[in-house]
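Hi team,

As requested, here is the filled-out complex form for the MU-OXO-diiron run. I kept the field names the same as last time so the parser does not choke. Let me know if anything looks off before we queue the next batch.

— J.
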Amino acid sequence: MTKTVLDAINDQINAELSASYAYLAMSAYCELQNFTGSASWLRIQSQEEQTHAMKLFDFVLARHGKVELKAMAKPAGDFKSVPAVFQAALEQEQVVGRQIDKLYELAFKEKAFAALVELQWFITEQVEEEKTAREIAGKFQMVKDDPASMLDLDRELGARQPGADAAPAE
Ligand code: FEO
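And here is what came back:
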């Protein structure tokens, strides 16, 4: 693996861990607002991001590369509302999606074939994560003036199990 690709993958490990950290802050905010289902969903998502980071971490080591863990920025912890949290989650996923695309492009240019195969999983995963975040953010926008529907949606989100499909039931 070239240094350019290694550096970029180490940056992506940081991005995934930062996403995990950000989801954790979102979870804490929702819990304080008594949206415990949303808080639980976000906590599971935080763990998922950690597994994404570890997938790249293990890949770097399997290629006998040096993992370099970098500083993480303080995540946003104050939000206007629970719907605003999920809007922020959607935007975060869109940023990560663009980062993965750029990383894939770089690996392609550098002819890092093993990295390309590894990154294919991330491209597929990102399509799913963006779709789920878009659906949830959209649903919160739809019901945000109706407390009963908000609580229903919160309950739906609370049904998510670790490792299970992240999308709420229809
Ligand atoms: Fe690891 Fe949600 O992207």
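Two things worth flagging: The CA atoms of residues 131 and 154 lie 18 Å apart. The chain is about 75% helix and 0% strand.

Thanks,
J.
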